[in-house]
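Figure 2 data, in text form.
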Amino acid sequence: MLGIEIDQINSVQLSNHTGYKTIKGQVLSEKELGDLFDGLVANNLHELYTHLLTGYVGNDNFLREIKRIIKHLRDYNPNIILLCRDNPCLC
């Protein structure tokens, strides 16, 4: 919509809101997030990013992995725009 290409990585994929009695789905681990990002790095795709939007962060280790990714992205684009949504982010 804004002319920005995106690569989306879902940190959670759930059947419904967590307020319901039963929830089915998956939560991405920090290792899985790191593996996905390392794949982008291996193909030099990380050098193209101008923005990073975070969403659900379920634990401290996942947040630390996001912090590692941000540091890496800033090496290539110190002006990267960071947007944190839904919960605190150590940006």
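Caption note: The chain is about 35% helix and 15% strand.
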